[in-house]
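Q: what sequence does this backbone want?
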């Protein structure tokens, strides 16, 4: 296919920077403070990933990584949507999860690498232009685990992505994240406006690159590269809850992803542990559960006593929830790793 295909024209390409522009005057304060201001709920690939083999219709109701999915998630009290960005052969950042896509030419179906395409896919620019502007974007920088990337290649990819971000993000909150350690380090060096998180399985799977194999290695990478935090598979945290203390001592933020984040009780446990946000597929169900965790209540709801001030006005307070002593919480943290062992 020729470079004059729809993707090329929709990207409205401009010359790539030779140097990355300085941070915007409206620099998002979180990037510097390293502290997340609230418990975040982030929609996985928009309103949830697709699982076409699943009997659960919610997992295939809306196409993942699409404008429709992002705007569907925006109908709920959600903070961010997470999606995967790759850069095509003609330097256009597109939103697509898999490394390969089935393509058809002359009646023959074959597999092609997404980065080799000129075809029309949902572009990052379109997402900025067409998605509810108050919705934050968690942009996962997607790379193939089987390839070792040269720094020059990574820089070229990020120039294409950052060009779109700086031109179209405006005041939209942005988080960058990547499973590829060098990618996370390079994008942090190229810009200081937006926080960068390192994605890890937390030791639930092992890789040739040891930096990917534990929460301890993730902490080390973040501290060495000045990253803001870690996004871990939730099982990795539940199996190794002691790492949470190390993460907090390092003044890093911690978010999680994984199937357990579609279980309200697992999300509530993370809230108690001090984890700062979750990436979920069941956006409606989990946002409702999280809203209930912090829902304001009054004395009429059987909430806390002493809610009346001297002027007799009713004051709002966080809804009462089961309270755990430090000893009980410690017991739960020891029990959870045993419960989720494979």
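A:
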């Amino acid at each position: 296919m020729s470079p004059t295909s729809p993707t090329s024209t929709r990207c409205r390409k401009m010359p790539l920077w030779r140097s990355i522009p300085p941070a915007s005057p409206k620099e998002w304060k979180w990037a510097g403070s390293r502290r997340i201001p609230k418990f975040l709920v982030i929609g996985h690939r928009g309103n949830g990933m697709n699982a076409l083999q699943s009997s659960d219709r919610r997992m295939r109701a809306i196409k993942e990584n699409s404008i429709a999915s992002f705007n569907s998630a925006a109908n709920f009290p959600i903070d961010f949507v997470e999606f995967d960005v790759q850069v095509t052969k003609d330097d256009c950042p597109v939103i697509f999860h898999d490394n390969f896509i089935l393509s058809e030419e002359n009646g023959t179906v074959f597999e092609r690498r997404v980065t080799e395409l000129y075809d029309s896919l949902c572009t990052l620019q379109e997402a900025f232009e067409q998605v509810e502007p108050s919705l934050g974007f968690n942009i996962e920088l997607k790379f193939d685990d089987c390839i070792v990337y040269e720094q020059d290649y990574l820089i070229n990819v990020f120039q294409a992505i950052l060009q779109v971000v700086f031109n179209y993000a405006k005041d939209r909150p942005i988080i960058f994240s990547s499973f590829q350690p060098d990618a996370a380090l390079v994008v942090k060096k190229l810009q200081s406006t937006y926080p960068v998180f390192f994605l890890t399985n937390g030791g639930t799977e092992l890789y040739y690159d040891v930096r990917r194999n534990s929460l301890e290695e993730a902490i080390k990478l973040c501290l060495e590269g000045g990253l803001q935090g870690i996004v871990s598979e939730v099982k990795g945290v539940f199996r190794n809850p002691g790492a949470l203390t190390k993460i907090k001592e390092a003044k890093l933020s911690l978010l999680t992803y994984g199937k357990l984040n579609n279980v309200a009780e697992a999300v509530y446990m993370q809230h108690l542990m001090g984890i700062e946000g979750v990436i979920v597929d069941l956006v409606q169900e989990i946002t409702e559960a999280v809203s209930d965790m912090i829902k304001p209540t009054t004395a009429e709801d059987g909430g806390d006593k002493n809610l009346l001030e001297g002027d007799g006005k009713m004051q709002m307070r966080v809804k009462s929830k089961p309270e755990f002593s430090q000893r009980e919480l410690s017991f739960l943290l020891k029990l959870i790793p045993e419960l989720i062992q494979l």
